[in-house]
Specification:
alpha/beta, ABC transporter transmembrane region fold, Rossmann fold, 20 helices, 64% helix, disordered N terminus
Length: 588
Amino acid sequence: MISPIAASEQKATKQLSTLRRFLQYLRPYGKEIPIALTLVVIGASSQAIGPFLIGWSVDHMIAQGNLPGLLLILGLLAVIYSIAVWATRGQIIRVGWIMQRLLAQLRQDIFTKIQSLPLSFFDRSEAGDLMSRLLNDVNTVNQAFGQTIAQMLGNLLSLVGIVIAMLSINLRLGLLSNLVVPLMILTASIFTRWARAKFRVTRQTIGELSAKLEEDIGSVREAQAFNRVQINIEQFNILNAANRDANVEAVAITAAFLPSIDFLNTLATAGVLAYGGYLAVTGEATVGVVTSFLLYVQQFFRPIQILSQFYTQAQSAFAGLERIFLLLDEPSQLNDAPDAVEMPPIQGEVRFENVTFGYNPQRLVLKGVNLHATPGQMVALVGPTGSGKTTIINLILRFYDVSGGAVKIDDIDVRSVTQASLRHQIGIVLQDNILFSGTVAENIAFGAPYATQAEIEAAAQMANVHEFITSLPQGYTTVLGERGAPLSQGQRQLISIARAVLINPRILILDEATSSIDTRTEALVQTAIARLLQNRTSFVIAHRLSTVTQADQVLVIQLGQIVEQGTHAELIAQQGVYANLYALQLGA
């Protein structure tokens, strides 16, 4: 069992490592940082000089009735504080400029990482939690560092300047004023240790809450249809309450911390007033020196308060950074091989050579699968849910790597070529294709963003959707909502087919593209698919066997193995699994 001291050391080491990694994002701003630091030094120095001049003017101008000298000091103070205001404003602008670009790069890195992660990562992750890391966690870092780091740097240097000034003016008063520093450090250590644990919980609960929110908003239709509304509300309330309680506990710690610092401030002020007054009465110190010290004590605690507030905010930021870096460190299991080459233009021959695969290494989904599709063939995959049909498709696209054996296209192992060049030559039309917020033309050109308007319209005509698009209020520039709203399922499917047509793939994958649409639209889809299949190797996942009677090969898959293989007529004649499935569907 790890001791509390060892656990605390581990946490401190982890935070230091996290901070070091975060500071690496400052490297591109090597020219701007010295300018910002110079402004910080100017501002801190200006703040430290003020109380000394005020105390000096009390002894040498006010006490001696030197009005012209006092006016001169007042003018000098006005200049000094004007410089301080200018420098502080400049440092905040400069540091803010750096931090916002740093945070923008951090968001970019997170998004790039999410886009490049293998599908196996998303099998175990929630979209809402990922969004929380990109938005909420980065925003927490922004609040802690982007808005207060400039003030923190300035106050840190001010604190150093104040300590030096106090010890230089009067050593005994300076030492007395600093007696509370160890108490402050101890207080900060205790509170921040509590805060760190609580803020880590707040980041975790907001991630869980975001995941639940994203899931329930996306499935509100199903929730209403299955009378799940009240249950969803209750589940959300539980997560919401957990996040609320975590934030309340974190805020309670912060709220208790600031009054503690104020108490120590009052204690130090009282000590300076009492001992300084004694020194002034006994003639060992002037009234001006005591005045300077009282002002310095007030300034001394202000930076400590700000630094303490920053430190508590930083606990939440560190918790967010830990979650961000955990995501950025997630291994990209499907990186291109170091010697990967571009996939040359393919003919469309596909081979599975004794392929085994499992999403979980302990449980294989495919077991020794062998198949061979020649260029231009239509291969139908049939079988019960969970038999491995979609897995075969995923391996052709190299969404996953095989556990054993090889997947080859034109006798080239898909692991030896770049993923982009492989997928560029494969088209896919799913049962429930996703359209995106944007124009109809942008959705068709999703896989070919530099396509011309003429090419987009030609693809739409081949997909039997051109006439429908031109009937829309703005034609191809009509803006669609999320997931293609308000188009019907059939209209979305036709646009998805046009999307596949536009990239002109040599291999085509269809996942029951005609299900869940009306009879008239189905005829349009079937015609469009027939055009799309011409002279292309195609793999069709078929739930309705009537749609694959013309396939060159029908592969019947059960429990991760091909149990029957042949044409529709050959398999019917065998009177095996396929024939039974076909008879059952006809009977239905």
